[in-house]
Each structure stands twice: as structure tokens, then as C-alpha cells.
Amino acid sequence: MTKLVAAAAAAALALGAAAPAQDSAQPEPTLAQLIGQKLVVSMNGTVPSVSLLRRVRRGDVGGVIVHRFNFRTSAQLRRITRSLQSAAAVAGQPKLVIAVDQEGGHVKTVPWAPPSLGPAQMGLQARPQGSRTGAALRALGVNTDFAPVADVPASRASAVYRQGRTWSFDAQETSRRAGEFALGLRDARAVATLKHFPGLGLARRNTDRALVRITAPRSRLAAGLVPFRNGIRDHVPVIMLSNAIYDAYDPVNAAGWSRAIATTLLRHELGFSGVTMTDSLDGAARVRGIPPNGLAIGAANAGTDMILLTGSEAATRDVYTTLLRAAQRGRIGRATLEASYRRILRLKARL
Fold this sequence. Notes:
Layout: H1 3-14, H2 31-36, E1 39-42, H3 50-58, E2 63-65, H4 74-90, E3 97-100, E4 102-104, E5 107-108, H5 119-122, H6 126-139, E6 144-145, H7 159-162, H8 171-187, E7 191-197, E8 213-214, H9 218-233, E9 238-241, E10 245-246, E11 250-254, H10 259-269, E12 275-278, H11 281-288, H12 293-302, E13 307-308, H13 313-328, H14 334-348
Parallel strand pairs: 1-2, 1-13, 2-3, 3-6, 6-7, 7-9, 8-10, 9-12
Antiparallel strand pairs: 4-5, 10-11
Helix pairs in contact: 1-14, 3-4, 6-8, 8-9, 12-13
């Protein structure tokens, strides 16, 4: 049994799942597998395309984000998720991460599903709202919620506050409520995603529409870390990194592709051992007037585990090819890819 297969089997046992029997001669994963499991991509239409299903069967895709334009009814969404997971299963690939943005309030990919309240209104209902949300999503074949938001708004000028996506101006209250919502999702066997590390509370503009640079010193950023520290303590499985630049940590790279933030701060200083994921690289790329390919290479080298791409299927195929070629040429370290692969397989053992 190879080291990576052994790690996956041990993870499955630790989570109460039966470890699959493995051929002791099974080879190490290929670069194509290491790259493919990193990518969470969009689908173009209302049914998975032949091309997307082929990519899933090859293992070129690790997850799919479902958008509101992909479906109109529960039955349609269930058909989508079944088709995607079946394609992975028949080819012997790991289960897919299938995700939606189901925060509550205005941000609900599935409009008729819980939560029935926005974050600021949930209060003591955060955990039951999270549980009901997770159960509803699982019934639709969705296993991952890109929620809760853990950003602590510094003022009413904060972009995430103006979007109605925050819990409280108080860091401890935000920490409690976001943590309870995440625990509720876990109660229902859905994967929670705490976002947007290390916090967007000081950002006055949307990172999908503007290049956001946060110039505050570390002392000012400390409050924004509180919900993430507590989420790590509670074993939140996924943390999404923001597309903002934080001068105090890395004046050049945004969090999603900053080794100083994704690895040094989040893993070494705060002790996070779960899966990290970029926010959508497409919005960040548009703001910068560049394709997302280079940002994806930067994210892989920063140690960020999964890369979220919300562009067209053709565009995400191109990012996959770019990453694979970069890895083949030694521009992305294999050891970094393998470490991410192990963490992704541990996560998927829970799905």
C-alpha cells in the first residue's frame, strides 16, 4: 500500500467508514490525478455536458459548484447531482465535492431550501438552521455548503455587511453564530466552509468587482481571525481564502495564492489541518485583467488545496491543462500537490 493510499484508508477508518481493500502494488497518483482533485468547476447548462462527465470519469475534476442558473426544480437538481456522482463512481474516482452557496438571506443558490433567515437574524437558531440546511442539501445530492461567512464587519461600510451576509459587528458573537451554523451542517452530515480567511470585514468593496487591498496592521486584523481560530478548534473541514491582499501578511499576493497566508498563517500559526480552497479565481482574474491560469498556479504553489473556478467549462479545461503542464515542468512542487491530495481524500472520506 502506498503512503497516499494508506493515508486515505486511515482517514476513512478514523471517520467510521470502511477502508476499501487496496492492491499493495497500486502506484502513487499521477500528476493528472493530483491536479484534477484540486479543481472545483462550474457546469454550463442545466444538465452535465458530455465533456464535463468525461472529465469527471478521468478524474480531471474534484468538485462541481452548482449555480442557480443550472436548475429550476428539486428534481432537476437531484438529476444533476446523481449524474455527476455516478460518472465518478463508475470510473472508480473519488466522490465529488458538490457545492452551493447557501448562506441565508440574499445568498441562497436553492431559494426554497433553508436557511429561512439571514445570518444577522438567526441568533440562537443558528445551529438548527444549519442542521435543516444541511439535511435539505443532502436530500438534493449536495454535500458541501460554501457557508458560513465568518467575516467580522468593521463598520456599516463593510462590503459583506452591506450585502447582508454577516452575523454581528462583534467578533465573539460572529464566532459563536457562524460556528453553530457550521456545527448544524455537520449534524446533518454536510460539509461546512468557513469564509473568507483571514477576514473581509475591513473591505469596503467586493473582491469580485475590485482589487481590494487591506492596509491594516496585524493588530487590527486580529479580531477578524477570532471566528477562524474557533472554527479550527471545532474542526471545521474547509476554510475558503479571500481574494483580497493583506499588506500585513503579504503585500503582493491575495490570500488564496499567498503562501504566507495559506500555509504560514493558517496552517503553521493557527494549526488548521483541513482543506483550504480559493474563492472564485475568475472574479479576481477579471479585476486584474488576466486569465485565472496564473493565479491557479500561484494558489497551488501556496499550498492551497482546492481551486474554485466559476468560468465556462472550456475555461476550466484550460486551467487544468495549464496546471498539469506546470507540474510536469516542475513549476509546482509534487510534495505540495501530494499534501493537498491527502487532505482532499480525507475530506472526501466524509462525503
